[in-house]
Amino acid sequence: MRERVRLEAVGRFESGAKTREIAAELRVSERSVERWRRQWRESGEEGVRSKGSPGRPRLSSEAVSQPNVIA
Questions:
Q1: Which domain holds residue 29?
Q2: What domain count does the chain have?
Q3: Which residue, 12, 22, 32, 55, has fewest beta-carbon neighbours within 10 Å?
């Protein structure tokens, strides 16, 4: 969903739409549109693609195999 909105914004950048118009039409903040526009200028469409949520790091196999120690 988020990536679809970003790619929709890219299409509007290419057609010359203003930041305020894009933000209103896509119902996102102007700041987000400005950030996406900057990323698009620097890296093209790949720059605005979602990188996914970093989330919590996985435990190493060593940490998983060690029992919990309560002091």
A1: 2-48
A2: 1
A3: 55
Model pTM score = 0.67
**Residue 66 belongs to a domain:** no
Q: Does residue 14 lie in a domain region?
A: yes
The answer to whether residue 16 sits within a structural domain is: yes
* 12-54: pLDDT as tens digits: 999 999 999 999 999 999 999 999 999 999 998 888 887 776 6
- Amino acid in the structure at residue 71: A
Those residues with Cβ within 8 angstroms of residue 5's Cβ, 6 or more apart along the chain or in another chain = 26, 28
